[in-house]
Design brief:
heterodimer, A: 7-stranded mixed β-sheet, 4-stranded antiparallel β-sheet, B: 3-stranded antiparallel β-sheet, 9 strands, 0% helix, 46% strand
Chain lengths: 119, 106
């Protein structure tokens, strides 16, 4: 059974940092691209960024709203993807989901983890 | 930056056909994907590559794409189909979701 479990969310002050993890199981993690998607309260889904697999040189891409502040990485030996969030702003407050691309984009999602940026 | 445009809301009665559109300049070259999202749950892929339906998704869900517009059609909408629906596609810099459409079935 495919499972994606996010962790690491919480309350952080503006300007602070937080690192989210996404633990994967039930599929060949190393073959999949991993994406992060967020949803602020009352808003729609927003694509945050992704890391491709080793065959694609672990290439990363980011939404303009987070580029230069967020870093996506992965550790295939641990079946885990990460989202390092720096210089956080109040508008980064959202539920953050990890999701995979295997044969199709986003066929499985985690349950989400809440990040609150507030003083 | 690339944008996908959806109507904010669509409302139908049970048993009627609901159509949700998604417009974007790159859709003639890029596939559209559709996700159903209910509050408190993870999104669910309901249509991929414009018109293909994943296993387990009811046959009443279908998709099409023509020119710069993709359409999700729910034929004979059920009360349980009430949810937010998002289109998704890609551009040269990554991915993008439409703004979402709230489908009301009542």
């Amino acid at each position: 059974e495919v499972q994606l479990v996010e962790s690491g969310g919480g309350l952080v002050q503006p300007g602070g940092s937080l690192k989210l993890s996404c633990a994967a199981s039930g599929f060949t993690f190393s073959d999949s691209a991993m994406h992060w998607v967020r949803q602020a309260s009352g808003k729609g889904l927003e694509w945050v960024g992704r890391t491709r697999n080793k065959a694609n040189n672990y290439a990363t891409a980011y939404a303009a709203s987070v580029k230069g502040r967020f870093i996506i990485s992965r550790d295939d030996s641990k079946n885990t993807a990460y989202l390092q969030m720096n210089s956080l702003k109040t508008e980064d407050t959202a539920v953050y989901y990890c999701t995979r691309v295997w044969q199709q984009p986003f066929d499985y999602w985690g349950q989400g983890t809440l990040v609150t940026v507030s003083s | 930056s690339y944008e996908l445009t959806q109507p904010p809301s669509v409302s139908v009665s049970p048993g009627q056909t609901a159509r949700i559109t998604c417009s974007g300049d790159a859709l003639p070259q890029k596939y559209a994907y559709w996700y159903q999202h209910k509050s408190g749950q993870a999104p669910v892929l309901v249509i991929y590559e414009d018109s293909k339906r994943p296993s387990g998704i009811p046959e009443r869900f279908s998709g099409s794409s023509s020119g710069t517009m993709a359409t999700l059609t729910i034929s004979g909408a059920q009360v349980e189909d009430e949810a937010d629906y998002y289109c998704y596609s890609t551009d040269s810099s990554g991915g993008v979701f439409g703004g979402g459409t709230k489908l009301t079935v009542l």
